[in-house]
Amino acid sequence: MAGTARTDIDDRGAALPQTLSGSIDGIRRSLPEWWPIFAGLAILLGPTFYDLFTGAWIGEEQGHGPIIFFLAIWLIWRKWPEMLAAIGHPAVAPVNTWLGWPVLAIGLMSHLLGRSQKILMFEVASIILVMAAIVLLKFGSRALRALWFPFFFMLFMVPLPSELVAAVTMPMKMAVSWVTEHILFALGYPISRSGVVLQMGQYQLLVADACAGLQTLLTLEALGLFYLNLMRHPSAFRNITLAILIIPISFTANVIRVIALTLITYYFGDAAGQGFLHGFAGMVLFVTALLLILAVDNGLQWWIKRREGGSGGPGSGGGRKLTPTLKEAT
Description:
The chain is mainly α. Helices cover about 70% and strands about 5% of the residues.
């Protein structure tokens, strides 16, 4: 029976699909093992997800949470065959599965503390810890090493302490306000600034945390890292440079968003600026950031190709290689 099935059976009787989509037979075989785990996760984390989707994740500050979570789940699904290949033959016992127990204990304590004390950071972090513990217990440390990026990516949905966010956000808002004022003033608009408050004609606009805050910066950084993981450029220089440049890219995107909101309010009134167009400006932020990332990435690719092409031109090492050949011919 095991020789004709489309799944491999390990020494614990677990059915592991060999392909990304798997088969109906493989899913049926795996249900007896996995349904208690899914039921336990639903009981443990169900109330947490309900509160997130009806509270924090529908606001501007943490609105990136569900996007990052579902992208991480998609990355795990995409890397699942790679993970199965990393753990080796199913007859071989997984490596360091015992590490899952302390990780699970920390995750459960974090969930208990976050749930009882209403600390969102601990409660969201427990989701990552519990999922990582399950991977360790079922498949071992090699599997978690293969899935390291999706779990690292989920860290961006963990809310940071409000004191840290406030301390970092204020200088960012000041900088965005200053740049916005000087750009619009140079374009001839009647604008002035007092701290993070912009005076445009008869309207006053407060640059909020959601427009130029630390959470926005982290969200855009996560977007850039997700892009790098999908592209998988072989050049380490290109990856590192683009990851660093995401910070000024996110700052530029924030400036463009604030400029857009300021102009919308100036031409269409305060209701338009605070209504639907305010949410649309958030989409402009991410679209702008994505376009800037693509432009910078293409610029890096062009520069690297030009540099590599120049190294093989006249007077370079490529020309010097001809000298021994000419001597041998004479």
